[in-house]
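Subgroup meeting minutes
Present: P.N., E.W., G.H.
Scribe: E.W.

1. P.N. recapped why we're keeping a running log of single-chain structure predictions: easier to compare across weeks, and new members can see raw inputs and outputs side by side.
2. G.H. added today's entry (407 aa).
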Amino acid sequence: MILVSIFILAILVRFYNFPNRVTFWSEQARSLIVAGNYLEEPSLLGQEYFRVNSFGHKLFASALFNYSLVPLLLLSKFDPIPITAYFALLNIFSGFALYYVVLKIFKHKEIAAFSLILFLFNNYMIYHSLFIWILDYLPILGVLLIYLFYNYFKTGRIRFVFLLGIASGLSFGLEYFYLFTAIPILGYIIYRAKKKILSVLIFGLGAILGNLPMVVFDARHDFYHVRTFFQFFMDTLEGNSGGNITYYQFLHLWPLLALLSGYLLFLLYKNNKILAFVALVIYVALNIRSPLVSFKSAVGMPVGMVTQNVDDASKIIAQDANGDFNVAEVLDFDKRAYVFRYYLQFKYDKEPLDEVSYQNPGFLYVLSEKDYNFGKSDVWEINAGGPYKISLLTDVGQGHAVYKMQK
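Output recorded in log:
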């Protein structure tokens, strides 16, 4: 009954008012665009990061993430809300997988239940349940890594070395910072194994299989990923990469943190049950009231806008567009309006010009605040083809609008 109650509460926390809480913006649209393009032209190249090295070469993630989105696109008929629901359910499944692993390790239901609650009601886990992102796969991979490492620790069997390699390859393909977790795992394998060279080779083989599209691409393109990543790593050491270390690069460690915290809470529970439950209630209350969690609106979307607003605006653009046109937005760093590009290309079959063709677009549809001063805009995408005659096309949510710009 406790597990059923936890499951129901986890569902409610994530799915209450779900359509209005889903975040679907630039990063999510870019992921689905790459996946949608695979339907026409499969590729070994995954989605590009927003980071480049000092030579201007872009970092790319594993194509496996975008390929995992392809069946979701087809099943949902290109609607991002059901696809987001898949990631919310995956997060809940990750929590219950953690429960099973913790129960297997400690043989105490209390530790497993505490770990489950700490994971499922963590504000970051709730937050990541409400949008599509490549790193949303890291928590379940983190659970898998705990399970495999524990089994290798207990048995020393070589098959777990191979499986740890596969899980590490998958994780590295999603987030390069996983390298700093893979190194100690491999170090322990070398320390533990009797046949050290063989174990390293087996781990490496598993890592190659787990990240196979990227490895094959490198073999065919002069090791582009290896060279680009190495240069970016050197740039980071020299302080020239422009990248910051942040929490989401370590989401694969969230299950381990929940496990350790669950064990500490169990120790408190053994000494003082009331205090342990009070601490747990306070934890859940603080996380649910976090700025990352809102039951009314989408965290990460412009204030007053929901996913359906963008869908409706895209439909109106598709109906209005005649001939060559392009789209832009001025609400954040993404001036090329990928969120419109996704809906227009895949849901409304009306593809705009590419991301650099703004010099003579015919028509330009721009998402902005309703009081935006286009005459003083410093956005290249707006100024490159101007001057324009500007008219209001449609309101978008509260305080935003799409403007139609033409010569």
